[in-house]
Write a structure and sequence with these properties.
Length: 154
């Protein structure tokens, strides 16, 4: 997605959402046939903070290495400042995951969102974002799997 223009990325994401919505509308019997794996099988999707979060400097987020490296270094002058805009649209994203039958979601925690200026100053808004995300995942019956995004700080 980094080599695509902003418009092409938006179309790609929109098409992915449309496909996800269509697959969620499969008949109950068809979905049961697709989900014919053992009950313990984990259907997991995931991504990294820089690929999906967006929310550039929103909610007290600090700069990270990707913010600096992407400016002027990606084709069409694209950046990771918006990405998939998960920071703004996380509730809709999780609803779509539930609709398509995902039962586990792996995400990375942006350290620049938790520690925006240094390793001693905690951003309460950033912590709240991830707490709210985990709480909503659990409410939807989706197992959260997370890790720190280690290459996400200067």
């Amino acid at each position: 997605l980094h080599l695509l223009s902003r418009r092409q990325r938006q179309m790609c994401i929109r098409d992915s959402v449309v496909r996800a919505r269509k697959s969620a509308k499969l008949s109950y019997d068809r979905r049961r046939m697709i989900m014919a794996f053992s009950k313990d099988f984990i259907w997991c999707v995931g991504g990294a903070a820089v690929q999906q979060d967006g929310g550039y400097l929103d909610g007290g987020k600090g700069l990270n290495i990707w913010d600096a490296l992407s400016d002027g270094h990606i084709k069409h002058n694209d950046t990771c400042h918006i990405a998939c805009d998960h920071y703004q649209k996380w509730k809709e994203d999780l609803r779509l995951l539930k609709e398509i039958g995902v039962n586990s979601y792996r995400f990375s925690i942006s350290l620049a969102r938790i520690y925006p200026t240094d390793e001693y100053t905690v951003n309460k808004q950033g912590v709240k974002f991830y707490i709210d995300l985990v709480n909503e995942l659990e409410r939807l019956g989706i197992q959260p799997v997370f890790r720190p995004h280690t290459r996400n700080r200067y």
